[in-house]
């Protein structure tokens, strides 16, 4: 298991306290050109701007609280979430995995290529230690390397969420963040079944983050050797 800095939260209570401080003092803002508020379906997010701004600032606060060395994001899309994670932990090595479907278009029929948008976003922010991997998560039997922080943020149906959780564990993470964990028809029952059947008592603690769709932080103990 990848080792975190000594000041990483050791308990649920400590995580909640540090997260709250990081969330309330967060000054991060979405990129003016490259964010969910400018992407092909921007109207959906603009109509719910306060809720989604809160959500992305929570992403920032989670990452700052963990202070990860290596981040793997499953479901990177156009990098909007990664912008928050990496802005909070600019020293981290980042790998974003997605199919990066380039066939999507704006309402004016102009192309919207999430891979290209993500690269432009990262370059604009000055992020350098990153990789973007074009891959179908269902084609992977393991993540490429170990990471202390893994984000599960791809398809939310039960089967996909469950498979993504199992795949996340191949990176031997210390922390996993499951986005949209409150989906009672997909991610929520998948998480419950996964935690009860797949991880052999390795959960140290969990923290629910009450943003739009909900996020669940799972802290793992080291596996027995």
Characterize the structure shown:
The protein contains 7 helices and 7 strands, in the order αααβαβαββαβαββ. With 225 residues, it is of the alpha/beta class. It has a single domain, classed as Rossmann fold, CATH 3.40.50.150. A 7-stranded mixed sheet has the order 3-2-1-4-5-7-6, with helices on both faces. α3 crosses α4 (80-88). The radius of gyration is 17 Å and the shape is globular. The N and C termini lie close together (11 Å). The mean pLDDT is 93.
Keywords:
single chain; 225 residues; alpha/beta; Rossmann fold; seven-stranded mixed beta sheet; 7 helices; 7 strands
SSE topology:
Blueprint: H1 12-24, H2 42-46, H3 49-66, E1 70-74, H4 80-88, E2 93-98, H5 114-125, E3 130-134, E4 149-152, H6 158-168, E5 175-179, H7 187-197, E6 203-209, E7 215-220
What's this, in brief?
By secondary structure, this protein is α/β, with parallel strands linked by helices. 35% of the residues lie in helices and 17% in strands. It has helices spanning 12-24, 42-46, 49-66, 80-88, 114-125, 158-168, 187-197; strands at 70-74, 93-98, 130-134, 149-152, 175-179, 203-209, 215-220.
* Span between termini: 11 Å
- Strand order, biggest sheet? 3-2-1-4-5-7-6
In which range does the helix fraction lie? Answer: 25-40%
What is the highest CATH level, the class?
Answer: Alpha Beta
CATH topology: Rossmann fold
Low-confidence stretches: none
Count of distinct strands: 7
Q: Assign the CATH architecture.
A: 3-Layer(aba) Sandwich
Main beta sheet: strand number and arrangement?
A: 7 strands, mixed
Q: How big is the Rg?
A: 17 Å
Mean pLDDT: 93
Order of helices and strands: HHHEHEHEEHEHEE
**What coarse outline follows from CA principal-axis ratios?**
globular
Q: What would you give as the CATH superfamily?
A: Vaccinia Virus protein VP39
Assembly classification:
single chain
Determine the strand fraction and express it as a percent band: 15-25%
Number of separate helices: 7
Overall number of structural domains: 1
Secondary structure class reads alpha/beta
